[in-house]
């Protein structure tokens, strides 16, 4: 690489440094735009952040602009985590879908996901009380598995994952106030474990961990976690019903979701009510 290009990247990294920057402007496709003003909520400074800024200045400008926010309430947390999941899919070509698991004081829940497949696979892990995302969260270490490895450890989970097109997973722990409280889960449609850029991946997990810590510190009471659960409950009910329809009928995820909507219209119910009926009607005791 030419020396002037390297110097140019170093200059951009210095300009983006959270220690001396109030705002950033960049040219992208010939159009000048203000990317972000970091005074209110600077990104978490770390060696990974600075390395990523140097190596991927344009990608990082986009990422920081997307994640430039604090999670001081339920809406803020869900918005931030959803943005992080979408950024993971955007940044890493070998990641088809992404989700974020959170667990404060109660059972684990999926706080963000980019596709119904994520919820279906996550839900099976919660039911089994084990799986890559829970193992990463409990152990504090990354868990990387192909579908073959999944089948050896959790045969039922592997069957469900394959049915919805998931053939590999990378799960990374997330922290709040020094305690593991979640995991970022990256799923692939290829039978090869995703291998994202290490620095970009670390930046995403740092943003997610900061968001979880923000939420925990601003609303540490059990009632705050209950609010988070209620905010997700309706969506999770719908996606669980979609998973039931996928397993029963072999539908793909999008078609199963449309079937659920059609059923709700036919029965004069809301989609959430119909989803609850689908789950109840097909439960072992139903």
Automatic annotation (TrEMBL):
<dbReference type="InterPro" id="IPR036388">
    <property type="entry name" value="WH-like_DNA-bd_sf"/>
</dbReference>
<dbReference type="InterPro" id="IPR005561">
    <property type="entry name" value="ANTAR"/>
</dbReference>
<dbReference type="GO" id="GO:0003723">
    <property type="term" value="F:RNA binding"/>
</dbReference>
<dbReference type="InterPro" id="IPR003018">
    <property type="entry name" value="GAF"/>
</dbReference>
<keyword id="KW-0804">Transcription</keyword>
<protein>
    <submittedName>
        <fullName>ANTAR domain-containing protein</fullName>
    </submittedName>
</protein>
<feature type="domain" description="ANTAR">
    <location>
        <begin position="224"/>
        <end position="279"/>
    </location>
</feature>
<dbReference type="Pfam" id="PF03861">
    <property type="entry name" value="ANTAR"/>
</dbReference>
<dbReference type="InterPro" id="IPR029016">
    <property type="entry name" value="GAF-like_dom_sf"/>
</dbReference>
<keyword id="KW-0805">Transcription regulation</keyword>
<dbReference type="Pfam" id="PF13185">
    <property type="entry name" value="GAF_2"/>
</dbReference>
């Amino acid at each position: 690489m030419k020396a002037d290009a390297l110097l140019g990247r170093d200059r951009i990294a210095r300009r983006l440094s959270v220690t001396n920057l109030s705002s950033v402007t960049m040219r992208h496709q010939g159009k000048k735009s203000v990317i972000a003003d970091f005074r209110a909520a600077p990104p978490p400074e770390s060696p990974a952040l600075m390395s990523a800024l140097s190596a991927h200045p344009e990608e990082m400008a986009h990422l920081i602009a997307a994640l430039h926010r604090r999670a001081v309430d339920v809406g803020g947390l869900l918005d931030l985590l959803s943005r992080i999941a979408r950024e993971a899919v955007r940044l890493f070509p070998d990641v088809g879908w992404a989700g974020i698991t959170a667990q404060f004081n109660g059972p684990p829940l999926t706080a963000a996901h980019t596709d119904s497949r994520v919820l279906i696979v996550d839900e099976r892990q919660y039911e089994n009380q084990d799986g890559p995302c829970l193992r990463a969260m409990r152990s504090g270490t990354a868990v990387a598995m192909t579908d073959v490895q999944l089948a050896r450890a959790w045969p039922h989970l592997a069957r469900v994952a394959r049915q919805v097109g998931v053939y590999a997973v990378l799960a990374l722990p997330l922290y709040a106030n020094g305690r593991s409280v979640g995991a970022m889960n990256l799923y692939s449609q290829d039978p090869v474990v995703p291998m994202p850029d290490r620095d970009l991946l670390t930046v995403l997990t740092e943003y997610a961990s900061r968001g979880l810590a923000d939420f925990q510190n601003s609303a540490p009471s059990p009632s705050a976690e209950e609010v988070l659960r209620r905010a997700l409950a309706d969506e999770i009910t719908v996606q669980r019903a979609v998973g039931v329809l996928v397993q029963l009928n072999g539908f793909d995820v999008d078609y199963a979701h449309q079937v659920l909507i059609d059923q709700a219209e036919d029965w004069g119910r809301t989609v959430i009510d119909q989803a609850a009926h689908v789950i109840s009607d097909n439960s072992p005791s139903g």
